[in-house]
Amino acid sequence: MSFIDQIEAIYDSLPLEKLPVPEWETAETGEVFVHYKPATQYELELVTKEIPENAKGSRFNVQLVILKALDSEGKRLFVNGDAERLSKKGFINVVNRLANAMVKTPTIEGAEGN
Fold first, then answer.
1. Would you tell me how many other CB atoms lie within 10 Å of the CB of residue 16?
2. How many other CB atoms sit within 10 Å of the CB of residue 44?
3. How far apart are CA 32 and CA 93, in angstroms?
4. 72, pLDDT greater than 70
5. Residue 112: C-alpha distances to residues 19, 33, 53, 107 (Å)
6. Taking the CB of residue 64, how many other CB atoms lie within 10 A of it?
7. CB atoms near residue 95 (< 10 Å)
8. What does the pLDDT average to over 37-46?
9. First and final C-alpha spacing in the chain
10. Is 40 helix (H, G, I), strand (E, B) or coil?
11. What percent of the chain has pLDDT over 90?
12. Helices 92-102 & 58-68, crossing angle to 10 degrees?
C-alpha cells in the first residue's frame, strides 16, 4: 500500500462527527444532529469555486454546510439548490457553527474516542 493510500484509508475510516443543533429542533423531530466528516482541501476549493466572486463571506459557510451536512446514515441533508433558502432562514449562527466544526482537523485522540 502506498503512503497516499494509507492517508486515504485513515480519512475513510474516520467516524462521522456529530453536532447538536437545538435551534432546528421541533416537537416532531426532537433532538437534531448534523453529522459530517472533516472537510478536505479539495472540498474547500470546490466550495470556493461554486461561489460567485461578489458573494464571498458567509456564503462560503452556507455552501460548505450544504456539501458536508449528513444524517446519521451518511446521506446528505441538503441539495445544492438549497443555498438561498438556507442563507435566508437557516440561522446564520448555526450555519457558521457547523462550518467551523467541519473545517477543524480531527485529532487521533478524538477519532479514537468516537
1. 15
2. 15
3. 16
4. yes
5. 17, 20, 40, 9
6. 25
7. 22
8. 93
9. 26
10. coil
11. 67
12. 70
SS3 70: strand
What is the C-alpha separation between 26 and 37, in angstroms, rounded? 25
Asked whether the CA dihedral 60, 81, 79, 87 is positive or negative, the reply is positive
Cβ neighbours of residue 109 closer than 8 Å, sequence gap 6 or more: none
Give me the residue label for grid cell 423531530: 29
Residues with Cβ within 8 Å of residue 17, at least 6 apart in sequence: 35, 36, 37, 38, 101, 106, 114
At the top level of CATH, the class of 17-106 is alpha beta
Can you tell me the distance from the alpha carbon of 3 to that of 62, in angstroms, rounded to the nearest whole number?
Answer: 33
Please state the pTM of the whole predicted model: 0.84
Strand intervals (E) in 8-84: 17-20, 33-36
Q: Angle at the Cα of 7 (from 101 to 67), degrees rounded to 5? A: 35
Residue 112 confidence (pLDDT) above 70:
no
Cell of 55: 458573494
Give me the amino acid identity at 85.
Answer: R
